[in-house]
Every structure is written in C-alpha cells, then in structure tokens.
Design a protein that fits this description.
Layout: E1 10-16, E2 19-25, E3 37-48, E4 51-60, E5 64-68, E6 79-88, E7 91-95, E8 99-100, E9 104-105, E10 108-111, E11 114-118, E12 124-130, E13 145-155, E14 166-168, E15 172-175, E16 186-194, E17 204-212, H1 218-221, E18 228-233, E19 241-243, E20 247-249, E21 255-257, E22 262-268, E23 275-282, E24 291-298
Parallel strand pairs: 11-18
Antiparallel strand pairs: 1-2, 2-5, 3-4, 3-6, 6-7, 6-8, 6-9, 10-12, 12-16, 13-15, 13-17, 14-16, 17-18, 19-20, 20-21, 22-23, 23-24
Pfam families: Ig_VWDE
GO cellular component, one term: extracellular region
Organism: Leptocoma aspasia
Length: 299
C-alpha cells in the first residue's frame, strides 16, 4: 500500500438540478499529474454512537463524489462520512491508506447547542441553522421552509413538569434559499428570555423544538430537528409582606403596623411600571381600632 497522501476529504452540501446533494471533495496527490490517479469513495452514516452504516461506494477519476439526499437512503438528521482511497490508474492494486472526512450533520442545528441563562430579563440570541440548501422544485417564487417553534418544561427528575421557564420572541421562523458557505446554507434567529416568576424553583431545564410546517418536499416531511436544552438559573429576589391586621415587612426587613382604613400605595418601583395598591377596612371590635387587608391591585 502507498502511504497517506493527504487527500483531506471534506463534505459540503449543494444543489444539483434542484435536488439536494452532498459533495465529497479531496485533493489530488501531488506532484504527479491528476490524470494518473483514480479514487474509491465510500459513503457512510452514523447509525449509532461509534458505529457506521455503509451507504454506497463508487470508483471515479474525479476529485469529488456526489451522494443525493433522497429522503430514503440518505435523510435529514444523518451524520455522513466519506472515506477516500487513491490508486494509480495503471496499477490499481497500489492503494493509499483510506482517509476519512469529518462527520457532516445534514439538517437543522441550533447555535449554541445549549444555553444557560438567568432570570434577569436579558435576551439571548438562538440561531436556527440549516446545513443543507433550501430547495423547492417548481415553487421558486415562494420557496422557504417554515419551522414552528415550541417550548417544553423538562423540570427535574423528582418534579412534575410545569409551565416552560422560557419565552421566545417568535413562534416560527422562515429559512430562505441562498448560497451555502461551508456548512451554513440558511439561517434565522430568535431570542430566548427566562421567565421571571419570583418562584424559588432552583435550576430548571426547558427545551426549544422546531418542526417543519406542512413541507411539500419529501426530504423535509419526516424530519424533526434535535431540540436545544435551556437551563434557567434562579436569581435571588426581594420580598415584602402585608398580612393580618396588617403587619408590614418591607424589602429591607423593617417592620410596621398599619391600622388605618382606606386605600394606600403599598409599593412602587422608581425604575419600571410596577406598583401595588392595598385597601384596608375596619375589622376590629369596640375596644380597639383594627384594619385588615380586603383588596389588592397590582401592575
């Protein structure tokens, strides 16, 4: 066998006659003329962690090889490899060592692949990226893939899931056709914000999922992208109280009593539109004047 020839195979995606194909490109050995060489290209995909399933093999004189994403043999969601072996045209038994490409994930990716955010009101950008081109044969004027976005609370193992701890800026995004650059063929963004719920519920995990909406193309019809997990971290929050006849404890721990009857401003923020009003009615006996909380209004 010949030694390694630094073929450096790389997989990219492109459209060929309106259909999505993966292209395996490799460098011809130098300094000899490229016409002296042939190549065996083996396509495979990840079937389970650490295991590959062979798809097909071809022999070609070209420094590239194509495999069509047909939705059957090669589907969205596959991680695909190409393995290239070079040989001299006159002596095919003299082969180079086979060289693997890096795994190419064909489908939708979320970037970043996971998020850790806090209940601080900040917006975090989540990019929805397609590594394959968007194709709509016969519908080029209105060509796009619409992804419906949803959230789900995964909670903790000991808890029943509740409302999601995150909010999205949009319920759907559109992926539009355009030229590919590396493994980036189409992209859209959405912002994720932690819900500030004032509940001390520790670190909770939610997921963001994307589902193609009524795809016409068979390639997208049976495809569900991987979810992205978002961990939400609690931040300490202040508390104030007004209870019984009423005793009042302020945010900084001071204690007061208030026995007056009427409607009062209990709390107002100086930095945002937030305030709480209370109404106190007489609830005492003949011996002492006592008022109790009977109503509250908040914004």
């Amino acid at each position: 066998k010949l030694t390694s020839l630094a073929l450096q195979p790389v997989i990219t995606a492109e459209l060929v006659q309106g259909r999505v194909h993966l292209k395996c490109s490799y460098s011809p050995p130098s300094p000899e003329p490229p016409v002296l060489w042939g190549y065996r290209v083996l396509w495979s995909r990840l079937s389970s962690p650490g295991k590959r399933e062979q798809l097909h093999q071809e022999t070609t004189p070209q420094p590239f090889s194509y495999a069509e994403m047909d939705g059957a043999n090669l589907r969205l969601g596959d991680t695909v490899f190409c393995t290239v072996t070079a040989f001299r045209r006159g002596t095919p038994e003299q082969q180079s060592l086979p060289e693997d490409s890096k795994g190419f994930y064909a489908g939708i990716k979320f970037l970043p692949e996971s998020l850790e955010i806090a209940e601080d009101g900040k917006e975090h950008v989540l990019t929805v990226l397609s590594t394959v081109p968007i194709a709509c044969p016969g519908q080029e004027d209105s060509c796009k893939i619409t992804l419906l976005l949803s959230t789900e609370d995964l909670g903790k193992s000991s808890q029943v899931p509740g409302p999601p701890d995150i909010a999205l800026s949009a319920c759907q995004v559109d992926l539009l056709p355009g030229p590919c650059s590396g493994s980036r063929c189409a992209a859209a963004t959405v912002t994720v914000t932690a819900v500030t719920d004032f509940a001390q519920d520790g670190r909770r995990v939610s997921s963001v999922s994307a589902r193609p909406a009524a795809p016409r193309d068979l390639l997208w019809r049976a495809y569900t992208p991987r979810d992205v997990k978002v961990t939400v971290r609690d931040l300490p929050t202040g508390n104030c109280y007004s209870f019984t006849d009423p005793h009042i404890i302020t945010f900084d721990g001071w204690r007061y009593d208030s026995h007056k009857v009427g409607t009062f401003l209990l709390c107002r923020s100086e930095s945002r539109a937030f305030e709480v009003h209370i109404r106190q009615w007489d609830c005492g006996g003949h011996r002492s004047a006592t008022a109790c909380n009977c109503g509250v209004a908040a914004r």
